[in-house]
Design a protein that fits this description.
The protein has 295 residues and is an alpha+beta fold. The protein has three domains: 3-136 and 212-236, Maf protein, CATH 3.90.950; 140-206, Dna Ligase, domain 1 (2-Layer Sandwich); 246-289, no CATH class. It is 23% helix and 30% strand. It has five helices and 14 strands. It has helices at residues 35-46, 73-88, 150-155, 182-195, 213-231; strands at residues 3-4, 14-15, 25-29, 49-53, 92-102, 110-120, 125-133, 140-143, 163-167, 176-179, 201-205, 243-252, 259-269, 276-280. The strands form four sheets. A five-stranded mixed beta sheet has the order 4-3-5-6-7, with helices on both faces. A four-stranded antiparallel beta sheet has the order 8-11-9-10, covered by helices on one side. A three-stranded antiparallel beta sheet has the order 12-13-14, with no helix packed on it. Helix 1 (35-46) runs parallel beside helix 5. The protein is flat, with a radius of gyration of 23 Å. The N and C termini lie far apart (51 Å). It binds zinc ion (2 copies). One zinc ion binds next to loops.
Length: 295
């Protein structure tokens, strides 16, 4: 095997010119138009042909909260991929899953973490990558009239980003989704205001992938990361999906040797065998970051 960088995937570890997925077919389980985001980077990197299959992934939980999610994002994504594989009768499947929530480390910031997974039941492997962003436009407000929404609509990039409207209290219906014009917004709001116990409607961003362009770019970045990982093959067994599995913290200060809480090395691993390799990512911490040199 030849160990060179893949021509279209910088940083990848490409063993030989023929990837085991070249020319094979995978199905992407999606209701929300994700094929143009996930298919092209993977096809470009490894030659896997990606087709979409329309399955009702909403039974695994929805963004709009109608059906709560029960499992972790990774488990949900794997379950979605298998739904598509079963529906299409194909043994390689792809799916993505997003988690949009207040960032646990930064107050008042909403973060979007998108995960894309490949499940190959013929090889018995699961390969996934994720990408996180704070660029997501997610917001909610209450009002009784569309006239009061001017700054909100500007902030959420309406109508590029679509909206959901529902009653604020007492009633759970009606729920209007995918609202893309001021006229539709006004009609939906007046109906929700009428049935709501407090005379207010909730107006919020519709976070489903086909309604939320700021999510779509994050899904595309996660797919690009997965493409790099699939192009990288285990140096021991050749199976695709070689990449980072762990990070070792504790970088020594270059001046006094005190351990600083920063990554010193990354461990790469295989999804099929036990082979692992340690990669040094930094050799010394700047004294400016050291609690002894710069208390
Ligand atoms: Zn120091
Ligand atoms: Zn291996």
């Amino acid at each position: 095997m030849i160990d060179i960088e893949h021509p279209s995937v910088p940083g990848s570890r490409w063993l030989g010119l023929e990837h085991p997925y070249a020319g094979r077919v995978a199905v992407l389980a999606t209701k929300h138009g994700k094929l143009p985001l996930i298919g092209p980077p993977i096809e470009r990197a490894i030659g896997l042909v990606v087709r979409d299959v329309d399955v009702d992934t909403d039974v695994l939980g929805t963004f709009t909260g109608d059906i709560p999610r029960m499992a972790t994002p990774l488990k949900t994504a794997i379950a979605k991929a298998r739904m598509g594989m079963k529906a299409a009768g194909v043994d390689i499947g792809l799916a993505s899953e997003g988690s949009i929530a207040p960032d646990p480390t930064v107050p008042f910031i909403v973060s979007d973490r998108e995960l894309v997974v490949l499940v190959d039941d013929s090889a018995g492997i699961v390969v996934w990558e994720s990408y996180s962003s704070w660029e997501i436009l997610a917001a909610t407000t209450t009002t009784n009239t569309v006239e009061r929404l001017e700054s909100f609509l500007e902030r959420v990039d309406f109508p590029n980003h679509k909206l959901i409207v529902r009653p604020n209290s007492g009633a759970v219906h009606p729920v209007y989704k995918g609202i893309d014009s001021v006229d539709k917004l006004a009609i939906a709001l007046s109906e929700c205001v009428t049935v709501s116990a407090d005379g207010l409607g909730v107006v919020e961003t519709d976070l489903r992938a086909h309604m939320c362009p700021s999510r779509r770019s994050v899904i595309a970045k996660a797919a690009e990361s997965l493409a790099v990982r699939l192009a990288s093959r285990c140096p021991a067994c050749g199976v695709p999906g070689w990449g980072r599995v762990d990070v070792i913290f504790g970088l020594a200060c270059v001046s006094c040797g005190t351990r600083v809480d920063r990554p010193r090395a990354e461990i790469d691993g295989c999804v099929a065998c036990d082979h692992k390799e340690t990669r040094i990512v930094a050799t010394g911490a700047d004294p400016g970051e050291c609690p002894v040199c710069n208390p």
